[in-house]
Amino acid sequence: MNISQLNIPANILVVDDAPDNLRLLGGFLGERGYRVRLARDGSLAIKSAQENPPDLILLDIMMPKPDGYEVCTQLKADVATSHIPIIFISAKGEIFDKVKAFSLGGVDYITKPFELEEVVARVENQLKICKLSRDLARQNALLQEEIRDRRQIEIQLRNSENLNRSILNSAPVAICLTDFNGCLVEVNPAYSQLFGFEPAELIGKSFTDVHFSHLDAESRATILQQHQEFIKTNHKYNQTEFTVYRKDGAEVIVDVTRGIFQRDDGEFFVVTTIKDITDRKKTEETLQKAVLAADAANRAKSEFLASMSHELRTPLNAILGFSQVLARDYSLKSQQQEYLQIINRSGEHLLSLINDILEMSKIEAGITSLNENYFDLFNVLDSIKDMFGLKAQSQGLQLILDCASDLPKYVKIDERKLRQVLINILGNAIKFTQKGCVSLRVKINRSSQVTTDSEQSTINKDRLYFEIEDSGPGIAPDEIDKLFAPFEQTQTGRKCQQGTGLGLPISRKFVQLMGGDIKVISTVGLGSIFTFEIPVIIPDLCNIPNTENKGKVIGLAPAQPTYRILVVDDVAESRLLLVTLLTSIGFAVKEAENGQEAIELWKSWEPHLICMDMQMSVMNGYVATQQIKSTVKGKATTIIALTASAFETERKMVLDCGCDDFICKPFNQEHLLDNIGKFLGVKYLYEDTYTQLKETIEAANDSVTNFQLNAEDLNVLPTELLKLINEAALGCDDNNILKLIEQILPENAKIAQAIADLANNYQFELIHKLIEQQARYSSSDIQLF
Questions:
Q1: In terms of DSSP bridges, do strands 609-613 and 564-568 run parallel, antiparallel, or are they unpaired?
Q2: For a pLDDT cut of 90, what percent of the chain falls above it?
Q3: What sections of 503-554 are H helices per DSSP?
C-alpha cells in the first residue's frame, strides 16, 4: 500500500550519523511522497520528535552518545513520543541486538546493507499498522466507558501479538523457535518455504528428526545434546553450517545463527535464523575445482618444460662440448679451427633461441626467480663490449661504453639475468643500426645505507642505471607496445627476419623481477634510447669474490696424486664428452650409465669426485646421491650435479639431496674444471703457462743443443709422469709424449726438449731404455711392462 492509498502525508524522521545514509534514505522516501526529516545524532532526534512527533522513525543504533538504544528508551519513556513506531536500521545483525531492539520498543529491524525497496515495504507496513491501530482505537473509544479496562488489555495483547507475528512473518530469512527438548515451537513462512513443510508438519516435532533423519540415532542424539548444552551455558550467539534435507529429499547447505530467548515465565528458547547457502557453496566448490585444475595445468606445464629442457639441452651439450674438446687440439689447421668456431657459434645461437622459448614459458608459468650473486660488474660490461665489438666494427659502427667514475666494481644482483638483458637490448641496437654509433651508459644512483642481519655487514641499497642509445631507424609510436609482446616484431624487425620476438619481452620481465622496468624513447629516423634502473647491493671488501681468470686448462700440473673421477649419465654421448675431456686433462676416469651402477663403482673404485646426471633410468641421480651421502665415506666424496633442467629453482632440490654443486647443461668446460679444482684442490696447467714454458724452452735451445740426456737426469721427474711417458713410448705415440712433457716444469726445460727431440726422431726404444735404467737406479716401482 502506498501513500496515496493511505491518504496520509506521512511524516518520517530518519536518524543516522552517516550523511550518505541520510541522503540516500531521505531522497528515496521523499520520491515516494513522504515528508522526511533528517537528524544526524540522537540528541537532535529526541528534540525533533518531542517538538513535532513524526509518524515513524527510522533509527540507526551505532551513533555517538546517545546511541539508538538510548534514543528509543527516552522516546518510549515520554508520553508524547511513546506511540511513535521505531524501525531500527543497523549493521549489527546478531540475534541479541535484534532482541534488545524489540525489547526496547522497536517495531522492526533492518540490517545494513539494506535494499531501499525493502525499507519502503517495511515503512508502509508499519504505517498501515499504525493506521489500523488508530482506526481500532477510534472504534474502541465508543465502547470505552463500558469495557474500558477489559478492552484495553485485549487491545494491548492483540497489538503485541500482531507486532510479533508481523515481525516473524515479514522476516526474509527462515526463523524458528525451539524449546529445551529441541521441539519446534514456532516457524515463520520463510522457514516453511525453505524446507517444503507445512507449519503443522513441523510444530511439536524435534528438529533433529525433521532435518537430520538421514543420520543414525546416536548422531541425532549428539546434535540434540549440543543444542541443550547451548541453552545451559546461556550462550548469547552461535553460528555454524549444516547440511540438511528438504521434505522432497533435496540437499540444502544452511548457515545457522542461534541466540537465546527467555520468556517472562523463565523458560528458555533458542531463536534460530537460517540462510540457504547452497548456491554459494557450489560456487565455492566450482572455484576450488578451477584452482586445482589451474594448479594441475601449471604442474603439467612445468613437467613439460623440464622434459623439453632435457631433450633439447642433452644433444646440444654433446655438440657444444665436443666442439670445445676439438678446439683443444693444437694440431688442427686454422681452417678446421674456423669450422669449429662456426659450429660452436651456431650451437650457442640455437641454445639462445631454446633458452628464450623456455624462459618465456617459465615466466608465463610464474616459476622464474632471482638468483643473486656477487660479481665483477666491470668484467661483465667489458665482456659484453668485446662480444659485440667485432660485429659493430664490421658494420662500420662505433660502440661506446661509458661508465660513471664512481661506478662500483663489485655488485650483488642476478648476474645472468642482467647480462641477458644487456645482450638482448645491445644486440638489437647493433642489429638494426646501419650507421653512426651505439652507446651503453652506466651509472650508480646512491641511496641510504642499511644493515643486513644475514650478512652482519653494512651495505648500500643503491640503484644501477643503464641507458642504451642507438642512431638506428627508430620505432614508430604505434609500434612501441609491440616491443614487449611475445613473438611480436616491429616493421623493422620483420624486414630483418632475425630473432624470435622474445628477447625484449624476456628482458622486461627480468628487469621487473629485479625491481625495475624498461622505458623506451624513440624518434623515427633518429634512433632509440632504452633505459632501466634496478636496485643493487654494493658489498664490503670482505664479500668481494675472487674472479681471477687463468685461461684455458690444458692439463694437470706435475707432482700431484692421481685424481679419480666417476662420470654418471644415461646418455652415451654425454658420458663420452666428459670422459674425453677429463681424460685429456689427465684425470683417471670411469663411467656408469645409471645411479645403481654408480653406487657399485663408488664402493669398489672410491672416486674422489662424481659428475652425476640427475635424470636417469633404473636409478636417478637424486636417489643415488642420497644413498652415497648417507654413509661416512660418501660424505667425503664430492658430487657435482650435471643436469639439463631449465629450472634454476632445481638447484635447491639438487643441493638438498646432498650434491655439493650444480652445473646446468650445456656446461662450460672451464667452469666445470674450475669447480673440480675448487673441491679437490687440483692444480692445473693453463694455456698461458704452456706458452711461457714453450718460450722458455725455445730460449734455451742453444744450451740444449749440446745436452746429452741420461737416465740419472730423469730422477727430477715425477714417477707417475715417467710411467705415462714410458707407456706412450712403448705405443710409439709421439703426440702423447709431446703432450705429456708439457707437464715438466720450466727449470727442467733441457730434459723436456731432449725427450721431445727423441720423440720427433722416433727414438721410442731409447726413451724406454732411459726410463728403464732410471727405474733400476732409483729402485722405482714403475711397472714398465
A1: parallel
A2: 25
A3: 503-513
Confidence band for 364, pLDDT divided at 50, 70 and 90 = low
CA distances 412 to 257, 415, 712, Å, are 57, 8, 56
User: What pLDDT sits at residue 196?
Assistant: 86
- Cα(4)–Cα(32) distance, rounded to whole angstroms? 10
**Buried b vs exposed e over 400-430: b needs ≥16 C-beta within 10 Å?**
ebeeeeebbebbbbbbebbbbbbbbbbbbbb
Distance, in Å, from the CA atom of 754 to the CA atom of 738, rounded to the nearest integer, reads 11
234: left (phi over 0), alpha (psi -120 to 50) or beta: left
Nearest Cα residue to 472 out of 423, 420, 425: 425
Residue keyed to cell 541443550: 228
Ranges of beta strands (E only) in 553-643 are 553-556, 564-568, 588-592, 609-613, 638-643
Those residues with Cβ within 8 angstroms of residue 568's Cβ, 6 or more apart along the chain or in another chain = 591, 592, 593, 594, 595, 597, 598, 610, 611, 612, 613, 616, 621, 624
pLDDT reported for residue 457 = 44
**Terminal-to-terminal C-alpha distance of the chain:** 120
Q: Cell for 158?
A: 492483540
DSSP codes joined into one string, 187-239? E-HHHHHHHT--HHHHTTSBHHHHH-TTS-HHHHHHHHHHHHHHHHTT-S-EE
- Please compute, for residue 670, the number of CA atoms within 13 A of its CA located in the half-sphere on the CB side: 13
Is this model's pTM higher than 0.70 or not? Answer: no
Distance from CA of residue 45 to its chain's centroid? 56
3-state SS assignment for residue 520 = strand
Contact 495, 456 (CB under 8 A): no
Asked whether residue 694 carries a pLDDT value surpassing 60, the answer given is: no
Helix (H) or strand (E) holding 447: none
CA distance 364 to 534: 22
Q: Give Cα 751 to chain centroid, integer Å.
A: 62
The backbone region for 760, taken as left when phi is positive above 0, alpha when psi lies in -120 to 50, beta otherwise, is alpha
Cell of 453: 642481519
Q: How many angstroms separate the Cα of 78 from the Cα of each of 43, 53, 162?
A: 14, 11, 23
Quote the percentage of the chain above a pLDDT of 70. Answer: 81
pLDDT for position 449:
52
Per-residue pLDDT band for 595 (boundaries 50, 70, 90) equals: very high
The amino acid at residue 702 is D
Whole-number Å distance between alpha carbons of 426 and 421: 8
> CA 517 → CA 415, 505, 533, distances in Å?
17, 11, 7
Residue 179 CB neighbour total at 10 angstroms: 16
Express each pLDDT in 513-539 by its tens digit.
899 999 999 988 889 999 999 999 887
Nearest CA to 598 out of 616, 581, 585, 584 is that of: 616
Gap between the Cα atoms of 231 and 262, Å rounded: 10
- CA 77 to each of CA 81, 159, 163: distance values in angstroms, whole numbers, following the listed order: 8, 19, 19
The reported pLDDT for the residue numbered 455 is 44
Cβ partners under 8 Å of residue 296, min gap 6: none
Which residue, among 249, 256, 252, 250, has the nearest Cα to 275 in the 3D structure? 256
**Which residues fall within 8 angstroms of residue 289, CB to CB, at 6 or more apart?**
none
Note if the bond before 66 is cis, omega within 30 degrees. Answer: yes
Place of cell 623439453: 308
Specify the length of the chain in residues. 785
CB atoms within 10 A of CB 309: 24
